[in-house]
Amino acid sequence: MKRILSAAFICFLSFSYGQSVEWGPLEKTKGRTTSVLPVGGSKFYTTRWSGGALLGSPYLGYHDNFTLTTTEKIDKKVPTGSGSVERIVSLKDKALIFLSDKKEGMNRLYMQPYDESCTPEGEAILLAEYAYPKGFRRAGEFNVLQSPNQEFFCLEYSIPASREENERFGYKIINAEFKTISEGEYESQYEARQSDITYRFLTNSGDYYIAAKVYNVTTSGRVKDYSSLERVILMKVTPEGTKEMNLELANKKIFELALAGNGDKLFCTGLYGEDNKGVSGIFHVTINFDTKDVTNESYNPFEKDFVTQYWTERQKKKADKREAKGKGEPTLYSYDIRSNITLPDGSMVGLMEQYYVIVTTTTTGTGTSRTTTTTYHYHYHDIIAYKITLTGDFAWVKKIPKHQVSANDGGYLSSFAEYCNESKLVLLFNDNLKNYNEGGNFIEPDQYRDIEYASYRKKTNCVAKVELDLATGESTRSTFFGRAEAEAIAIPKLFNTDYNTGEMLMVLRMGTKEKFGLLKF
What is the pTM of this model? Predict the structure, then answer.
């Protein structure tokens, strides 16, 4: 289905701090946008889902001057039949849809280019294939990575193995002209039940790094938790095989990890703990993978005052009593690394967010009329931002308090978006106007109970803007815009930051209508 719309009416909303956003119109659309793929300025692709979770279908749309000019159901056709969508990305003025097909003992990955008509351009291109063992119901899987500068893609696939066998993996790296620059297969050193490849990174020069968690295995199997984690193995994948080294932190356990870097220089940043007492702080390691030398290793422990910042007096007293009884110091928990941004001077900014899900089950009625309801509560809370200097030291670490809770929606309106310019790190997220004064400035709370939960009502919803000075970490927080001004609610998870153009595409929704905005930084 196609629908050609008139040119969008473009407007600008200027806010108190003097910055403006270019907006498109609020328009009724089919289905919900699931991602935004930039082409340039107010031209971009969107993917969307229309219909129910089980019977719905994916669509691709093209926007010109913010307006959806064309939308088509994604054609999953491949030469061997019908495939499954693995990932969709944009490259220059094209949308690239990666499709996998498992048939007759073979697992294949195809790439199908689309143009602004949202129809397939030529036939799907076979990128990788392998035979999977007979009798296996699970046929392995594909993973598609894109480098931060969008110049390279890595196509990785896993070949299933039994619990007592070592898994095999294959990969292919292609450039923006779709030429293969590196490919091969490699075998894990460990049994399938003993290790997981959990972290991957493709550099701006096309180098491919992975990290695997290795667990202790007993005769009865193993539990994938931090108590059984034996070590983390870093690997650089090449056509000749893998270069490997242990990521060792003296008397410290790795809780969370992110990879960054370029060429043979690898940055490893994450959360560490000591003596199984929970998260103790952030670590950063710089590695020359060519020589396997650690050129820098630094730690930023979370001091007690940092952990308990904004806690109520009652919470602090309770924590003090636990500590006095030898049950451990106050710790942070359930933080996920969201992004690592390498700055032009070689320094780096990292972002973490507290995230967890609480599941509640209630039963009503008796006998055969009993009804059980399960509710998923999605919690997105504080952000921790930090900067690591060119020499690998921590310049600053800051906590940004927020409360976002929703039920049975996957946290659709929660979390945050970010971008960096030459001098500032900027964070955007849904908040509550009650947390700000009449001038739109944040009211610094004494404790967490003073922070209102994010609101999505017309009178109280706003998007918060937090600006952190890259040199000092000093921050300001104010209102950016609200539902009343924009006539829709922001979806920060879908915001797309393009550092090649210095633009952020923003997505907002109200009922069955959507609108898009363009912020230049």
Answer: 0.89
